[in-house]
């Protein structure tokens, strides 16, 4: 079925060209009007799936028409025609919810071919966007009804108090929980990981996040997310821990439902770059970065701290020496959207944060909240554990090499082939001191005190592979060959 399009331009020759190039394609059912006032009248009588408007018109410019439509007709896809050198117009239009902009050129065939493609894309995208918004609303409704579990325990995991929600989950009263071990139903490996993480807590790195999965007495698989904060004495000694948990089982199901629609939205979206060499200004995110004055540059932890303190809205961009490009999109100070692009492709949302490092330098470009919200759609970050400050399992930084600290890069291979997406756990004297996932090139890096370490790899077929290595220089590397 043809897409119903309202085309607005006060120059009659342009309307005739639109009819000639678009009106006979069969993909678009075109209604042409020659002023903003006529467009408003047409909207009052008919429904349209897409609106295309010129910017320069005598009675009402295209941005003024856009504002009227957004106020009275909601989110009908809106495409704006602009001339060259009108960057401020494009930014204003994007600020007020324009879906796309097209610059007028000398070749009408090429211009209207691009326009037809954009019309089809924004019409398709709107349907998927509405489905995605409905799934996200369901996800947030699941979060709203969750009750927090609260537990205080000693460094040896002995519980000293808990709330009723935690005790009810364990079929008892709060007083019954006193003296029990926190998360005693974890596997031995997970208990070891938890104990190691607790003993690594310091006043400067005082929290850790983890997930616990177990089967309830009625046979349901439940997953809980825990945030654990250390409580320290004036001498810096760990005295106790406060754990806050919540059941994320339904949340995980809702997120899985969202994922399907996010992937469909990403296929339709034209807002974001799709490869390392994509600097095309016709991509809105690139356009904003190229035409917005940066507010400053920070490392990742500094950026998170700065954005939250000032409630910043905008796009943070980082380019690595290997050519990778990373973007974090902030709304009200929170990194709610993410994109990571390297030679192997593009990652959105949660996956985009897996390869971020504290040393990455980001430049921040402020935008209106509306623009940030628009870009977040389809690349929303739900799990922010990889971009928290301080990082999970972070080792306190030691500024001098003479203090005995080095960076080691582990290169995981199998038959000479790089092994991306493999979890690597690092242990020292039986305690876990680091966890990470290998990059697209099969590498991961750790900052460790000088000494001997054991690495544990869970391979793709589910078997454990152990290896040992030594850190005794400021920079080193180690190849791990998986059998």
Automatic annotation (TrEMBL):
InterPro entries per the record?
Bact_response_regulator (IPR050595), CheY-like_superfamily (IPR011006), PAS-like_dom_sf (IPR035965), Sig_transdc_resp-reg_receiver (IPR001789)
* Residues modified as 4-aspartylphosphate: 54
- Coiled-coil ranges per UniProt: none
Keyword set, alphabetical order: Phosphoprotein
What is the scientific name of the source organism?
Answer: Methanospirillum lacunae
GO BP term (any one): phosphorelay signal transduction system
Q: Does the keyword DNA damage apply?
A: no
Protein's UniProt name: Response regulatory domain-containing protein
Q: Which superkingdom does the taxonomy of this entry point to?
A: Archaea
A single Pfam family it belongs to is Response_reg
Q: Which Gene3D superfamilies match?
A: 3.40.50.2300, PAS domain (3.30.450.20)
Residue span, Response regulatory domain = 4-119
């Amino acid at each position: 079925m043809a897409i119903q399009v309202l085309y607005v331009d006060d120059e009659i020759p342009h309307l005739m060209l639109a009819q000639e190039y678009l009106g006979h394609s069969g993909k678009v059912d075109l209604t042409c009007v020659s002023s903003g006032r006529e467009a408003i009248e047409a909207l009052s009588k008919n429904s349209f799936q897409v609106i295309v408007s010129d910017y320069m018109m005598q009675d009402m410019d295209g941005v003024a028409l856009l504002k009227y439509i957004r106020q009275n007709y909601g989110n009908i896809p809106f495409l704006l025609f602009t001339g060259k050198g009108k960057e401020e117009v494009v930014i204003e239009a994007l600020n007020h919810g324009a879906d796309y902009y097209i610059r007028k050129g000398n070749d009408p065939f090429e211009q209207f071919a691009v326009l037809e493609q954009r019309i089809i894309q924004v019409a398709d995208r709107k349907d998927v966007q509405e489905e995605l918004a409905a799934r996200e609303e369901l996800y947030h409704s699941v979060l709203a009804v969750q009750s927090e579990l609260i537990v205080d325990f000693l460094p040896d995991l002995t519980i000293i108090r808990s709330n009723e929600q935690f005790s009810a989950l364990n079929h008892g009263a709060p007083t019954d929980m006193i003296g029990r071990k926190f998360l005693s139903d974890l596997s031995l490996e997970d208990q070891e990981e938890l104990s190691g993480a607790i003993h690594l807590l310091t006043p400067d790195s005082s929290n850790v996040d983890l997930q616990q999965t177990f089967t309830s007495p009625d046979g349901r698989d439940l997953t809980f997310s825990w945030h654990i904060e250390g409580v320290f004495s004036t001498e810096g000694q760990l005295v106790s821990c406060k754990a806050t948990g919540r059941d994320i089982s339904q949340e995980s199901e809702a997120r899985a439902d969202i994922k399907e629609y996010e992937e469909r939205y990403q296929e339709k979206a034209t807002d974001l770059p799709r490869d390392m060499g994509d600097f095309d200004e016709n991509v809105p995110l690139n356009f904003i970065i190229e035409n917005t004055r940066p507010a400053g540059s920070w490392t990742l932890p500094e950026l998170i701290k700065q954005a939250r303190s000032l409630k910043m809205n905008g796009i943070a961009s980082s380019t690595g020496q290997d050519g990778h490009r990373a973007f974090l999109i902030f709304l009200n100070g929170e990194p709610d959207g993410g994109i990571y692009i390297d030679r192997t492709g593009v990652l959105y949302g949660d996956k985009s944060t897996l390869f971020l490092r504290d040393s990455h330098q980001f430049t921040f470009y402020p935008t209106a909240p509306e623009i940030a919200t628009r870009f977040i759609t389809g690349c929303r970050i739900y799990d922010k554990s990889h971009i928290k400050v301080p990082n999970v399992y972070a080792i306190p930084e030691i500024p001098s090499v003479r203090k005995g600290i080095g960076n080691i890069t582990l290169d995981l291979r199998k038959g000479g082939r790089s092994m991306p997406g493999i979890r690597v756990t690092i242990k020292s004297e039986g305690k876990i001191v680091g966890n990470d996932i290998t990059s697209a090139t099969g590498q991961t890096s750790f900052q460790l005190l000088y000494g001997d370490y054991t690495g544990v790899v869970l391979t793709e077929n589910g078997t454990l592979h152990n290896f040992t290595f030594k850190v005794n220089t400021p920079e080193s590397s180690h190849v791990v060959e998986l059998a």
